[in-house]
Structure formats: structure tokens, C-alpha cells
Amino acid sequence: MIRLLLWLLGGSLLGGVVHLATVLVLPRLATQDAYSRLAPITRVNAVTALAAPTPESALMPFMDPAFAAAVCRYDLAAGPLKFSVPISAAYTSVSFYTRGEVAYYALNDRSAGRRVIELELMTREQRNNLPGDEEITAADRLIIESPTTTGLVVIKALAPEAGLLPAARNVLATARCQQ
Known about the structure:
Immunoglobulin-like
């Protein structure tokens, strides 16, 4: 009886280890992640509006049809990125993701406190190369450190009614993501 329990315990532990390893490794092996799906339709360091999602053609998971969405596929190898988007009438959010789809920063219109969300995106090395005595940097600019040189910035503007979706898209059309 004890021998059977030991076999069951060993099998359970082995199954748990295999399951955990599979769950951790599969996302790194996936070839059709959001970054790869967006690469053919977006330019680097430019904002691209995304089409309204349908169940058959959503480019990213969990897209809500009540939101107008745009994306900036960035590459910080040449230098920091200046990003700005005016806030919409209802709600605007900006989310930052690494190339491996790890969310590392997000903010919305309420936390920005202004009519325009403006920030600079840079790597830690680029941030360290900023002049040390520049007090304007900390006071007047929002600087976000990216853990990787490539990634995605996802911008969403809420349209509380279907008739307001064109206005939300117009807000996203004025967003800027450039070096």
C-alpha cells in the first residue's frame, strides 16, 4: 500500500513539474504573439489605428468594441521616444508592453491630470545619460523607463455610445509616437 502511495506521489510531482514547465515555456515559443501579428500592419515609432475588433479578426486578445484602439510599435535603439495623445471626452488609457507581452506601465487620463498625456519613453541607459543637474527633467516631463528596447504602446479611447466612436478615433488619430 505504501509503495502505491509513493508511486502516486511521484507521478503527481512529475506531472506538476511538467505542467509548470510547459506553462512557463509555451509563451516564449509562441510565434503568433501580439507583437508579431501587429508587425505587418504597423510602422516602427509611429501610431497606427487598429480596426474595430470582430470575433474572427481581433488582432489582440480581449479587445472591446466600445473602445477605439491604436498601437505604437517602438524601438528605442536609436534614442528615446516622445509620446503624446490628447485625452478623449470619456476615457483614455495608455499601456506599455515589452516585446514579450509583459505589461510594465499604464496610465489613464485621470492620472495624467492634463488635457494631453505627454511622456518620454527610454531605456535605463538612456535615462542615465540625461544631464544630472537638469531639474526640469523630473518636474516637467514624465519619463518612463522601458525594460527592453522594443515593445508596444497600446492606446484606447472609450466611446460610451456607438455614435461617439468616430470622435474617439479622431482623438487617437492625433496621437504622436516619434523620436
